[in-house]
Amino acid sequence: MFANYDKKIKRHELSLMGGLNIEESLYEQERMERDGVISADYPSISQATGVPVALDNYSDYAVLGVFGRANYSFSGKYLLGLTGRYDASSRFPEGHRSGLFPSVSAGWVLTREKFLSRLPVWMNEIKLRASYGAVGNQAIPEYAFYPAMDAVYADWLVGGAQVTTLTPPGLVSSNFTWATVQTLDFGIDLGLFKNRLTASVDWYQRDTKDMLYEGVQLPAILGTGAPLQNVAALQTKGFEVELSWRDKIGALGYRVGVNLFDSRGRIKSIKNEAGLLSQYYVDQELGEIWGFTTDRLYTVDDFVEGSLSDNLTGGQLKEGIPRREGQLPNPGDILFMDYDGNGIVNAGNNTLSDPGDRRVIGNSTPRYRYNVNAGFNFKGFDLSFVINGVVKAQQWRANQLTFPNLYNFGALYSDQLNYWMPGNETAFHARIYDQSAGNQSFNQSVQTRYLQNGAFLRMKNVTLAYSLPDALIRKIALERVQTFISIENAFTLDRLPSGLDPEINRSGDQGFGYPFLRLYSIGFNVSF
Amino acid sequence: MKIVKIYCTLVMLIGICSCSKDFLNKLPKDKLIPETAFVDYNNFKTYGWSLYEQFGGYGGAIPNAMQSDLISDNMNETRPGNMSPYAYQTKIIPASGNNTVTQVVAQWNFAYIRKGNIMLDHIETSKLAEPDKLHWRAVGYFFRALRYYDLIASFGDVPWVGRTLSDTAAILFQPRTPRDEVARHVLDDLLYAEQHIKADGDGANTINKNVVRALISRFGLFEGTWRKYHSLSGAATYLEAAKLASEKLMASFPALIPVYDDVFNSEDLSGKPGIILFKQYAPNLITHSNPRFVGSTSWYYDLTKDAVESYLCTDGNRSPQVPFMQAMPICLLNSGTGTGDCISP
């Protein structure tokens, strides 16, 4: 429910808006199932033979809020906008339910200024923008402040049947509230060369504050996780550039649009006093990949002469050659960089102050993402395409397509045959073992050598169309006749092992998920 | 007109604000909270079943009975590369612990202790009758003692957590409680449990007086001998408790199960002589994989010659005094079918 009010006095324009927001959501799920339907043509619960199963699931939430907006403009040159929301949500405990989220924006259209009237004629529009806004985030599960107990089956049979029991309630805090997302944005909009070129550039900084996270670090004696509190903060900085150009050369018309964007996120505050690398820590960049640095493969010369068995195992390392903690390396295994020089390569305490021999070796966040769409038309022919891609990204992928003989039932593909063997000491892949046992797990640990390059360029769509000339089809009383050929996901250029897709990163030993379909279509459009 | 609008808006606002408190109060409909989960006897019984998880039964993919033998000279794993991390000095000390079940080395995890304490802390505020309160306290004490027995065996000194902790509890940052004190708590709790638990528990195959006595017997023997052989005080207290409990147990269970192998490889031990409490297995519900290990060449695991030779044979000899293959049928092959007269090691 909202109301508007507009007023115009000479060159002043004011518009006001105010409203109320009442939202209630109730999710209900009731499910009954029973296997062994007697007749597939007449399915019914009572005419089935299996064990009946009934389940239900409810969740509800409500939001109540007021909001308002005021826009002011002075002769279309100076623009000012104020908005505010005051919301209360049932997802937060009583007394902590409401939050105020204001935002302000300002714009200045330079090209309408008299003192800039001597600007070159090709500058059609220049507009500067700045805004600062806060948005509330209540995307947490419902009832998070109730210590809920779930019904589960116990690991115990009584008289041959499994008994139902309850999970212990977790520790909850009763004073958490909204997380806020504050965005500061500076932008410029351009329209140049008779608006053939339009461009907009934005730089922004987004601060997500008061995110819910374990509020304190507590010893294991507690017996459960620490309660969630509004303690974490994340800062994202990024930019976005959009360019588009549209023109005509004789009978050839063309248009090109490019859009490039990038952002980096950094943890600004979190409770992780020990600096554990297994959790988020302060000043961590999102997407960081911690791993070992690969030095080379062990060679026979790294072992004491005569200590190796006939099949080159069980040797004794020479003085000063490092090995992984818990590993008895053989020739062909990966030798990692021993940064701390203690002869043992490990993850130290797995903390920031003692990361052992691990370092940040990459970042999985896709950087400099872009989209290009372009089109050409010439005498009824129209060719257009859409490209998207990523300039820089690293990915750690451990699956059957990146490692030969990944596990004891794993495959060995033809493009993975360059693994270490006596006589192939310079192989790319390390030594593989019978049943993938032994040192293979060490050789497959996160490291620089097998870090994948996630950069790619994908031709999302190419379409070629031909429309019959208007003069011709009018005679047979038709509006438009067009034929076209189009290919979706025509091709992808990337550096990954064949079979993997840069945008589908699924865990699991196969490494691939449901792929993007390549779709060819040929069509014929007739409009009357 | 404008005035009417403003009035309307105001009326709406007031209306909404006055009902907003109830409007925003949403309670979970399909979950219980402690206030609703611990009221009557059946509530406690329901929650109590979750404490039985501490009985690991035969264990998971590798039976508990084999776990520790695999890293000793009694058994050997022949899978390539999976040699004993202790023998080859490749064992890495774990950084954190799981909530392991009994018979496996306990790790630094107190989730189970908290689970038991939550039940204990809600007994007083419940609507249980007075004798039932005693019974459930006894059950809670028993399970907590069961976990502490494992913790003491692994760590010696462990923090004694006698009630559910909040995130601000002082004990979180205090040093461990001395073993002496923890062991005394465990024994006291068990003796309380023996006295107050219902003689028949909550039906067949549940915690009852005899189960408590069995734990007193085990724990008392363990703690008593530890003290005796480390020349510590108090050994007699624990040994005496063990002896008393064992005597009562022996009176109640005069016969032992005739086929020793059944104890280690059965689905259902109900009604078998000498069985105090057992973990029942049933297809599709709770299963075990022990039959996989019955044959002498099963999976990757096998006994070593050393282990075979340490078995006692029916004629009273240790196997080194008889030819190797003669010892085998008696003690190993027949044990698989359960028909032989195998003798306990």
TrEMBL record, chain B:
<protein>
    <submittedName>
        <fullName>RagB/SusD family nutrient uptake outer membrane protein</fullName>
    </submittedName>
</protein>
<feature type="domain" description="SusD-like N-terminal">
    <location>
        <begin position="100"/>
        <end position="221"/>
    </location>
</feature>
<dbReference type="InterPro" id="IPR011990">
    <property type="entry name" value="TPR-like_helical_dom_sf"/>
</dbReference>
<dbReference type="Pfam" id="PF14322">
    <property type="entry name" value="SusD-like_3"/>
</dbReference>
<dbReference type="InterPro" id="IPR033985">
    <property type="entry name" value="SusD-like_N"/>
</dbReference>
